Amino acid sequence: xxxxxxxxxxxxxGAATLPALGGLPYRSARAQAANTIRIGVxxxxxxxxxxxxxxxxxxxxxxxxxxxxITQRGINVEVVQADHQNRPDVGSTVARQWYDQNGIDVIVDxxxxxxxxxxxxxxxxxxxxxINSGAATSDLTGPACSPNTIHWTYDTYMLGKGTGGAMVAxxxxxxxxxxxxYAFGHALERDTTAFVNAAGGRVLGGxxxxxxxxxxxxxxxxxAQRSRANVIGLAxxxxxxxxxxxxxxxxxxxxxxxxxxxxxVFVTDVHSLGLEVAQGLVVTESFxxxxxxxxxxxxxxxxxxxxxLRPSMVQAGCYSGVLHYLKAVAEMGVAAAKASGAEAATRMxxxxxSDDAFGEGTIxxxxxKIHPAYLFEVKTPAESRGAWDYYKLISTIPANEAFRPLTExxxxxVRS
Amino acid sequence: MEDLLFEIQxxxxxxxxxxxxxxxxxxxxxxxxxxxxxxxxxxxxxxAQFTLGAFVAWMLLSWLGIGYWPALILAPLIVGAIGVxxxxxxxxxxYRIDHLYGLLLTFGCALVIEGVLRNNFGSxxxxxxxxxxxxxxxxxxxxxxxxxYRVWVLIAATTVCLATWLVxxxxxxxxYLRAATERPQLVQAFGINVPLMMTLTYGAGVALAAFAGVxxxxxxxxxxxxxxxxxxxxxxxxxxxxxxxxxxxxxxGFMLGLIQGITEVFWPEASQTVVFxxxxxxxxxxxxxxxxxx
Lengths: 416, 294
What we know:
The complex is a heterodimer. Chain A is about 45% helix and about 20% strand.
């Protein structure tokens, strides 16, 4: 055998880093025209957040470009997309290349909080614009806020207040967290804990699970059950949440009265789990395709989404954010919008937002987009009337209560 | 003393869960070891073939109404046949050149398989309900409820591992196989069709991965990434056990599952890393692996 162990390991390492290099988008920047706006959709195209963001976000952005009517004004818009593989190093490399070499003016989406924080820093450094829809961490408009970043769709404060608040109000006084071990999970656990404590509840403990790569949550669920907490808070997302909820059902974790709180559950997760397993879960979202006539019209106009899914709130947020950005571009002119991302953000903050996905809203000085949040309960199989009929509305959290008040935010932009 | 008993009682479920996860590692690393031992190919497509097994089971159920039990046989056969085709069409052409090409080829195949599945079925995963009859195996250990299906996974995986080991170590076919691993030309001179044996060995290794995939389908979400999450750990298992060692891969698989299960209690954040720490220690102290021959 001429194959020695050293070369095996080297080969394995080489193979593991290959997709990072292969995934880089490469576009010629030669055709730079002064009146072209370039939008880069950067998200998870291949991992556990693909269905909530992925190609569906690009699809939504393209619709926003069409509906903005901007091309009729003689302004060109180019949309490109890339995969950040949920890795801050990959996301940073793409963002730098896009800004430095490919003339990208605005980066959109970016789920995975650790990547979003990295992209936000780079965007500020280059004075471009970052419209985040996919990431959850409320730090994007807190300590890490930036004049070049707008956080559009939701954040950990909204989730903690919505789902966390509802669970405590329903009698869940003691909590145990199963937390994805990275920026997002930590922020979600922290923000939810604040609501639990404020409502007189108590956190008994928690585990932090390696991200990504954890598939078996049975051991963590067992530890949660043994803590005798009323509520097991799942501070994770996507495939992690799906596996946690699925395995909680398998191990009958909830039979003693313990409740599961999926702190970030997307409609595509419910679709994957099926109502048999997901029924009764309380979820907080800022968009649901079947919420009202406007959201239904929006969903209809989107047409067939990649993978035959219905739009998630993240994808709806990409649409809404880009639509608003292009309105600002139309007002301030392409040259000014391209020259300074911070200026474009300031213009966006000065204008009220309005679209079918989120209704009417505003953008605050700290970069937080403000709109209502909705508390839903997942229907039972008997209640569901057809495909994708998954949620019933329990309550609406008004726009001025859904997000962290400016006075509590630790955003340096606001304090100065 | 009572405290200790209490601790053991608390740790017992974790030990059981760890061993059950170890069963998956054992099954997957066994297939890798068989393929590596015979073909000298590091089969990077193993995780994708595991995923494929789960997806074939799901397709059989949702498109053709074929249930779990037939799928447990059919899916490994179908995926094994795909493996045979892969070996004949591509991998067999690489035996004469550097082994890293085999690694790159199978890695490329894995990316293609996962990409096609992702494109067609999305990333959230499909559901595959465990058959109801496993309710009879449900275990209650105080507060701890162990689903019957996990008990079945342990039984099935252990049986298949032992059977594979017996076939390779104790039967005539196994002796040909082992002989062909050491001296292919000599074995061929005795009139044994070595290329055919290599093809079938690859098919069998792939079928083992698919079998593990069917076992995993009711537990995890059937998603394109399910194999990729396992495979890196499984490669570490193979390296720790000793490349190509059949018994080594089985024992190491169960052992690492157990160690991971215990780490999940005492230091959850490190439960993925622990495998690689052990790998590093083994490489430093016994470079040929725990069961390997230097």
